Amino acid sequence: MEDEVFEQIISVLNQLVSWIAAGAMMFGGVVPYIPQYRDIRRSQNAEGFSTYVCLVLLVANILRILFWFGRYFETPLLWQSIIMIVTMLVMLNLCTGVRVATENNTKRRSFLATDSKDEEIKVPKRLFLDFDWKYFWLWSGFVDYLQCVLAFTAVAAYITYLFLDSILFVEALGFLAVFTEAMLGTPQLYRNYQNKSTEGMSIKMVCMWTSGDTFKTGYFLVNQAPIQFWICGLLQVFVDLAILFQVYYYSRYPQKPVSHAVHPSSAKAL
């Protein structure tokens, strides 16, 4: 009798741990962006955050959802992708609004400094439908980013539908999805290198990246997820550690930012 009760307790605990782990997988990826979102909203400055991080995660999670149709994996991982896509769109909406407002204010001050009488000072709009690659992912409105995401999703979904019966294509799609996500920190890593500083970047966000990616990789291993998942998970942890090293290095050895002669409208390459 006691053995049966003990087994039931163990079974309930295992189920509880499984639910907690699944919940952490679904929502844990969102948590690192909460402090970054609050910092940008409070300071009205998005300079320290690379919106290309949003691009990487949007592409990775869209591809992962398409991979699910070819090779089913755990449902929490599917929901994680859906939640992450929504989160990245929210971040893009905030960063775009802040960036455009900053550009307008900068130009307004420039006109006032030259005693201009023009009160209608606006930065020229850059639209997705212009198909100008010079301004890719530097558009003036959130709607343009949304159009790009929808266009990519439609094309990728159509191609996946055509080749869904090909095992080679499905496996390659899965690898591309997780490898793209593994490169998540690369835009931030490069931006920090360009600026010779990590100022404006939320260190809390990177610490959460690292802990979350470590947990996620362990989850992949324990639950025997497709091999693409845990290999790229290890790579993602390595990139996170590289960014943390930048935080240590640039705080211990501050360096003067390198000046670049760039076009004003392309100064935010990342």
Automatic annotation (TrEMBL):
Gene3D superfamilies: 1.20.1280.290. One of its GO terms (cellular component) is cytosol. SMART domains: CTNS. It is a multi-pass membrane protein. Keywords: Membrane, Repeat, Transmembrane, Transmembrane helix. GO terms for biological process: phospholipid translocation; retrograde transport, endosome to Golgi. The keyword Amino-acid biosynthesis does not apply. Coiled coil: none annotated. Pfam families: PQ-loop. This is Solute carrier family 66 member 2. It comes from Lepisosteus oculatus (Spotted gar).
